[in-house]
Amino acid sequence: MLESYVKDQEFSLVPNPYYWGEKPKVDRIIFKVISDGQARVLALQSGEVDILGGDLIGKIPMESFLELKNSSSFETFTNRTMCSHFIAFNQNVEAFQDKNVRLAMNYAINKKSIAENLFNNVGLEANGLYQTGVPYTTRENNYGFSNDKEKAKQLLEAAGYVDTDGDGIREKNGKKMEFNFVLSTEEFPEWKQLAEFLQSEYSSVGIKVNLNILDKNGYEDATMNTKTFDIALMRTSSDSWVPHGSLLEMFSILSTSNAAKVWYDEGLYNNITRALNSVDETERQKNYDTVFKFISEEALTVPLYYPVTSFAVNTDKIEEFEIGVNNYAPIEWQKLDVKQ
Q1: What is the mean pLDDT of residues 121-142?
Q2: Average pLDDT over residues 12-37
Q3: What CATH number belongs to 2-81+309-338?
Q4: Could you give the 3-state DSSP secondary structure of residue 286?
Q5: pLDDT band, residue 327 (cuts 50/70/90)
Q6: What is the predicted pLDDT for the residue at 240?
Q7: How far apart are CA 11 and CA 229, in angstroms?
């Protein structure tokens, strides 16, 4: 239960004496509010905090996590999540109305290299919009496209995009294949590194991508309200929001922009609604098969990377640390103990 609270600084929790379940082993937990990722890491290293991490809020910057992982001073913990990182298209952009272009944008990316080389095997390459384990997804209905830059080039040429002036950028009807790529690094600092990698990958097949890094408010406005992007780096929801709420969030019309956050197709929306309204599990699975297959077959997104939830812990002081079941219960608090 809440013991104290100082806005934008910290709050403390103490055991509820009337709770009927397992009693916690510690008598107080203090949560520090530290908005900057690097400042959070310094707080751990200085001893100001003893536990750092999480899937979203409090996330450890990727480069710092690798440093902490290789340090003898802290123990690191990771666990899979249900969140995925992907590229969304602005479907009002003429180029993306062509399925060949969307497919090419998928084939152009070496997703395996993202997980193995860019992020040092912290996480997995994406093989579909949703991670394995998300309810109702299967290998047959939820899939991506392997890296094949030659195929990407062929698809772009089939769509009419050719580099006629030798500047390395394809064009069609006099218009360059050049896109505004919107992202924010406040929630995921590693997105800058990821976006630079994607920029290079697209350049290799004749697509110019201009990075536009916005603060959190600017990013939400561009992606949810004004739709002032050509492509955008996004993530799916996780935990209990997946897949039900996540699908509606991404593929239904938003009142703020009169457009979908990711893509709108009337048939897809109707099938999502049908799946949500299904009572029989067999029928629901069949409806979800239709939904996920359409998203995959039509290449409505570019799945990139499956992140993990990560923590770094001062085990000289903390023992019995275990990652919890989801974002709402990120740590098994009742098992946590302090060394005497």
Answers
A1: 94
A2: 92
A3: 3.40.190.10
A4: helix
A5: confident
A6: 61
A7: 38
